[in-house]
Amino acid sequence: MQGAIAIYGGDYPALQSRWAGFLETAALPNVDLFNVLVSWGKFLGGVGLILGVFTTFSVLMGLTMNFAFLFTATVSTNAQMVLLQMFLLVAV
Fold first, then answer.
1. Tell me, what's the pLDDT at 30?
2. 3-class SS at 7?
3. Is 23:4 a contact under the CB 8 Å cutoff?
4. Taking the chain, what is the end-to-end CA distance rounded to the nearest angstrom?
């Protein structure tokens, strides 16, 4: 989170001001809580998708985490995963 906050600012910030504000005021002071929530969210979302239990809820939670990673300027396969999750959500 500190790395994401560090890339905010300058002439061409990679982070939006609202997201940087959320990271500074809510996420960073409660980093221990967010570490637990992200870990459990990944685990339970994956188990839910594999077992086919609460599929819609699992996809929505996966989308929430992927959008959080995208907002933090993490460019990877997250954009493709968001698209696949949208297809899965529509299919359900």
1. 93
2. coil
3. yes
4. 33
